[in-house]
Specification:
Layout (H helix, E strand, L loop, with lengths): L4 H14 L4 H18 L10 H8 L2 H4 L10 H20 L21
Helix pairs in contact: 1-2, 2-5
């Protein structure tokens, strides 16, 4: 049975902690993944996430705008959030938590451990 997005993010954060990431890094990753959870829904099965669905998140006001002011987030902040999401999905596929890599073509893979 496929893990939910919530279950997979918890496993990912545990993995990051086990690999020695700092508490500050873990905190920022947790915030970035929480934004993803808010948009897609915590109970969404990992194998239900498609490039189209993820692409909508990457263009959403939830990701691009500051919450209180409504101003656009800086490119640095948005790119960091996208990087965290990308790393999460690459990790999830490597761990067998997702059958496919649901990243839209617009998201560069960066330093993945592809075979």
């Amino acid at each position: 049975m496929s893990k939910t997005l919530q279950e997979a993010t918890v496993l990912y954060l545990d993995y990051l902690q086990d690999t020695g990431k700092s508490p500050r890094t873990l905190g920022t990753y947790r915030v970035d993944l929480k934004t993803l959870l808010r948009y897609l829904g915590a109970d969404l099965p990992m194998n239900s996430i498609t490039p189209l669905l993820l692409g909508k998140f990457l263009k959403s006001s939830l990701l691009l705008q500051k919450r209180k002011s409504g101003e656009m987030r800086s490119d640095i902040t948005v790119n960091k959030n996208i990087r965290v999401v990308r790393q999460f999905f690459i990790w999830a596929k490597e761990q067998g938590l997702s059958e496919t890599l649901p990243l839209p073509k617009s998201v560069p893979l960066g330093r993945s451990r592809q075979d």
